[in-house]
Amino acid sequence: MTEPRSTARDAQIAKQRPEGWPVGSFETYQEAQAAVDMLSDNEFPVGDITIVGVDLIEVERVTGRLTWGRVIAGGAASGAWLGLFFGLVMALMSGYWFSSILAGLGMGLVFGIVGVAVPYAATSGKRDFTSSTQIVAGRYDVICKPERAREARDMIALKAQHLKG
């Protein structure tokens, strides 16, 4: 049996805002996930549940300074790994191990360095730092379809009551 293909309608549904009644609100995603897991363990139809991140903010953490040396070293390293891979593939096909691996490494270094140097030069020093970006939610709400919301809310509240007392 084959899996059904995703359609444009499925994509449109996925982009809609979630609907339902709130049945629990949690400070972390792990707490919200644990609540849904508890509902699942109690055979609640979790297909009616959605976890929604609320009060979203984008956080960009600066991780270091970007210099020409770091750019070239990073490009050389990633290019060398890719070149080594292609060199090994060429060696397996041709039987010329040393020359194939050396050629692959050389081409990987050149393309790796050029591949990072050109975009870095194009920025003209406007972004001389590295960073990582993530989306962080202020809280996580668990919502449920209205016809089962009261039951889900009561189950989550009962579990929270057991944890406190």
Automatic annotation (TrEMBL):
Keywords linked to the UniProt accession: Membrane, Transmembrane, Transmembrane helix
Q: Residues in domain General stress protein 17M-like? A: 23-93
Q: Where are the transmembrane segments?
A: 71-91, 97-122
What name goes with this protein?
A: General stress protein 17M-like domain-containing protein
To which species is this protein native?
Corynebacterium deserti GIMN1.010
